[in-house]
Amino acid sequence: MPKVKVIHGPNLNLLGKREVSVYGMATLDHINEAMKAMAGRLGLELSVVQTNSESGIIDEIQAADYDLLIINPAAYTHTSIAIRDAISAVGKPVIEVHLSNIHRREEFRRRSYIAEVALGQISGFGPGSYMLALRAAAKILLEGTPHKA
Ligand code: DQA
Q1: Within 13 Å and on the Cβ side, how many CA atoms surround 46?
Q2: What is the pLDDT of residue 144?
Q3: Ligand 1 center from residue 147 Cα (angstroms)
Q4: Would residue 76 show up in a list of annotated catalytic residues for this protein?
Q5: In a domain, 147, yes or no
Q6: Domain CATH code at residue 114
Q7: Is the dihedral of CA 15, 4, 139, 77 positive or negative?
Q8: What pTM did the predictor assign?
Q9: Does residue 149 sit within a domain?
């Protein structure tokens, strides 16, 4: 079974309590449970981690124990060349995910250092962003849908 790893970045452990008007009421456990159920239905093996540290994210990327990575780097999206370089170095397919639409918030959130090394970005659908990413992952890994246009 193809392996998909999900990395949740800093502060996402606070989902459900944090800025609910932006991020919604769902907790991270809730989102992870929904993803596990969907991955099972799609025929994907899923592992999920959350870390508040940049080095923790980089270590998880470098572990390369996955066929495709779904990552919400949270605030590091907008700052971390180190995470971008780790993705490039490992060379595995990556889908970037955001709960909120980063393009209709503050100006500084529009810049993603990750987008240029990701297959694509899903942003703005709340927990549904992760579900859409899983569907895209299944298409790529199980149906061989080309990643590049
Ligand atoms: C986020 C958007 C980021 O700008 C923010 O720093 C986050 C969460 C999202 O999922 O919408 O922490 O990645």
Answers
A1: 27
A2: 86
A3: 24
A4: no
A5: no
A6: 3.40.50.9100
A7: positive
A8: 0.96
A9: no
**Residue-level pLDDT at 96:** 98
pLDDT along the chain (149 residues), means of 10: 98 92 92 98 98 98 98 98 98 98 96 98 97 98 75
Domain assignment present for 106? yes
Domain count, the chain: 1
Q: In this structure, is residue 97 part of a structural domain?
A: yes
Q: Could you tell which of 12, 110, 131 is best to mutate to test the pocket of ligand 1, judged by most ligand atoms within 8 Å of the CB?
A: 12
C-alpha neighbours within 13 Å on the C-beta side of residue 147:
16
Distance CA 20, CA 56 (A): 26
List the domain range (segments joined by +) for residue 125. Answer: 3-142
CA distance 96 to 119: 8
What pLDDT is recorded for position 149?
44
Nearest-angstrom CA–CA distance, 16 and 41: 26
Query: How much distance in Å is there from the Cα of 74 to the middle of ligand 1?
Result: 4
Task: Give the CB-side neighbour count of residue 103, counting CA atoms within 13 A.
Answer: 7
| pLDDT confidence of residue 21 | 86
